[in-house]
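Appendix B, example 12.
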Amino acid sequence: MQQKWWEINPKTLADTPFLALYSDRISQNIKQLIAAVNGDVSKLRPHVKTHKLGEILELFKVYGINKVKCATVSEAELCAMHGIKNILLAYQPVGQVKQNRWLTLIKKYPEILFSTIVDNLEVTNELSKLGQSKNEIFSIYLDINTGMNRTGVEFKSNWDDLLFQIHELPNIQHLGLHIYDGHLHGTENERTHFASEAFSLIKEKLHTVEQKLNTKMKIVAGGSGTFPFYATAENVECSPGTFVFWDINYQINLPEQNFLAALLVVGTVVSKPTENTLCIDIGYKAVASENSLDKRLVILNDTNLVPVSQSEEHLVVENKGNQQYRLGDIIYAIPYHVCPTCALHDTVYVVNSQQAIQEQWTVLARKRKITI
């Protein structure tokens, strides 16, 4: 019987549960990403929150990707440690502690262009004063809310007035706009329609602002859902993150994007409590569990293994098929949501083209603090 792509040479298996990364498929996903922007890597600013891995950053550089987006100071520090030249913290630095951490990171790596987002004058004023006291200029993007209602200035509001006020603040360099529209779902046509509606209004107002200020501003926009739209838009840097590993959620809901599952949770059958149930060591400490039980993972070995309960270290599945399992059998599962799944593990195991584990990587930026 031909070996399936996910099956790992048993002589190289690690103790379960663990995360397996498939290096060939990761490389293929990066190539697919670059192809989507017609080879123009300057349009790419991938989000690192999915993988949090320095080795992936090194792989980005091999393909000419030298701009990234991140959500935590720890992720930004990891990027700086690996020599990424342009790092956007897409999380407004509120409060003295976070602002001082951000300043410390900027001072430590003066050769790197760091930027962050803001959505109000209060935080921007604080950064301005901190910059004046420490002889530092903070680069910022104005965060625009197109309907997700999580952060940002409402896109139909007079956000240009706020932008003009920010532009006058000392020690603040305003680079452009940040847009994240993760609230958009549905078909590709539906996502494109709603993204383009908001984007047209934003671009129109931004054009007027640029004329008044006699400057050209950048736009960092989108995530995985609207990546195909922004990939073809002018003057936009795209910020998908999940593409590097992909997951079941996006396989189902973003079928037009031809990325491959490249990260699996590997477990073991540890008990057979009844005739038709198996217990696997993939509890919710090993795979993201914010969704209902039917939306946490899909088992590749056998679609007839259906989850019926889960606890911290156990996953009970009902065997609705005829295939029999023994204690110690290995189970391979694609997570429904890969980003928080990766953040649950200290390390990942890298599977090579011969389907053997060749090395182990540390998920360093899952830590809230590396050194700063």
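Residues 188-213 form the longest helix (26 residues). The chain has a mean pLDDT of 97.
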